[in-house]
Amino acid sequence: MRRITTLAGIAAVSLALAACGGNAGTNGGTETQSSEGANPWEGDASQVDVMTWWEAGSEKLGLEALEKVFQEQNPDTKFVNAAIAGGGGSQAKQKLSADLANKNAPDTFQAHAGAELTDYIDADQIVDISGLYDELDLKSAFPATLIDRLTVDGSIYSVPSNVHRANVVWANPNVLKEAGIDTEKPPADIDAWIADMEKIKAAGKTPITVGMAWTQVHLLETILIADLGADGYNGLFDGKTKWDSDEVKKALTHFEKIMSFTDKSLHSEDWEPAMNPVIEGKAAYNVMGDWAVAAYDSQQKKAGTDYIYFPVPGTDGIFDFLADSFTLPKDAKHPGGTKAWLQTISSKEGQIAFNKVKGSIPARSDLSDAEKGEFSEYQQNAMQSFGNDTIVSSIAHGAAVPVKVSNAISDAVTKFTETGASVDDFQAEIVKATQDLGK
Ligand code: GAL
Fold first, then answer.
1. What is the mean pLDDT of residues 138-148?
2. Which residues contact 60 (CB under 8 A, 6 or more apart)?
3. 20 to 30 A from 47, CA-CA: which of 98, 182, 299, 326?
4. Which of 365, 377, 360, 379 minimizes the C-alpha distance to 321?
């Protein structure tokens, strides 16, 4: 069986384990050989077509920060922005799959470290770039827990630009106070959180917001983590935890209850418009990855006064992980440009500039204390959690399951939330959607 480390029983590996690596430097290093022997980088370096879904709002600002460093480091390579709108890659992944099938590949594309990459590897659409890891000394620059999730049958196919945390509640402290909720003491578990949502509803505000399908899957996965714990949640992907179990049913029932507190008119919105009511003081909570920091920053909102954040109740000490990672497609027209891009995004300079704006933390674990000090309070906190917490992998963001499975889960979730089917029917659909996992 192919080895891709996704979940099972992986405890946090301290960042300290990763030894210091040097700055990846700028374009133009020595030639890199892939493990197959051919030089995958040979070819046009005059431009690089970069496909992401960082097309709008606060996400676009992150990409622009990265582009700036890229152009400074590679003045002779033109950056071509091939971004496709839609948070979570909701539109991009479909277009990408068609482009790859039609041999119309971009020079590099955003994907998630982990199971999602297996889709492209199985279809023989991306290239083993392990040689670049040796050339740039990236195996010692990234923490072992990340290298593990990037490795498939001993090979690595992408370079991560960042690490995001998914299990975060973003809350409006004023809305909580109006409802008589202690903002210093987050609820201990999902039941206590639901009790607080009842108070907010009674006070006349929307307790929690959620948007389109992928944001609903995102919310669901964090409830699964809360109710099953890290080991139980990890077991969902290797067959040790049964999707038709009572524990899963409990989580689905919690999800049903929490969805009943949401504003249905937001269910077709992307993540940023769906969380705006929380930022504006019309709603209390939103569960979102820490790209939310970028949304607050772009509206000049301050942590502590304008917003507070805490792990989804019941997931304290667990880091629901995902990383954006960039590839070299087999049919890239400008592989020299791709190499330049991967060097920039892996460099300290690129990672610092990008992550400061994006809300995520650098994938590199060799930042000095002074460099870490340049990040926001939230991000410094996330760096510590990533080093100390138990790491689990995100479903909604491709770390835990292949695209096919996350799409099937997403269909089951929207069928449930839009038709008001029973929890039993919902569970049966989810069982069907996940039937190939762990085989
Ligand atoms: C995730 C991605 C993040 C952010 C988010 C919202 O899948 O990893 O970087 O872009 O979607 O669009």
1. 94
2. 54, 83
3. 98
4. 360
* 232 CA to centre of ligand 1 in angstroms: 25
Q: In this predicted structure, what is the pLDDT of residue 38?
A: 77
- Cα 48–53–58 angle (5° rounding)? 110
Would the pTM of this model clear 0.85, i.e. be above it? yes
Give the angle 89-95-99 at the CA atoms, nearest 5°: 130
For ligand 1, the distance from its centroid to the CA atom of residue 39, given in whole angstroms, is 31
CA distances 265 to 230, 278, 280, 288, 418, Å, are: 33, 15, 16, 18, 11
Task: Supply angle C-alpha 414, 319, 243, rounded to 5.
Answer: 45
439: β partners = none
The residue whose CB lies within 8 Å of the most ligand 1 atoms, and thus the one to mutate among 58, 212, 291, 321, is 291
**Which tokens is 16 given?**
């300290």
Give the model's pLDDT for residue 420: 86
CA angle 282, 395, 397 (to 5 degrees): 70
What residue owns the CA closest to ligand 1's atom 2? 88
The answer to whether 69 and 344 are in contact (CB under 8 A) is yes
Structure-token pair, residue 177: 């106070």
Phi and psi at residue 207, to the nearest 5°: -65, -45
pLDDT in tens, 189-214: 999 999 999 999 999 999 999 999 99
Please tell me the chain's helix, strand, coil percentages from 3-state DSSP, rounded to the nearest 5: 45, 15, 40
CB atoms within 10 A of CB 265: 7
Name, in order, each residue with C-beta under 8 angstroms of 72's C-beta and a sequence gap of 6 or more. none
Instruction: From 269, 304, 308, 326, select the one nearest 126 (Cα to Cα).
Output: 326
Q: Which of 296, 103, 127, 288 is nearest to 210 (CA)?
A: 288
d(CA 136, CA 91): 33
Give, for 66, the enclosing helix (H) or strand (E): helix 57-73
Nearest CA to ligand 1 atom 9: 324
- Rounded-to-integer distance, Cα 137 and Cα 33, Å: 14
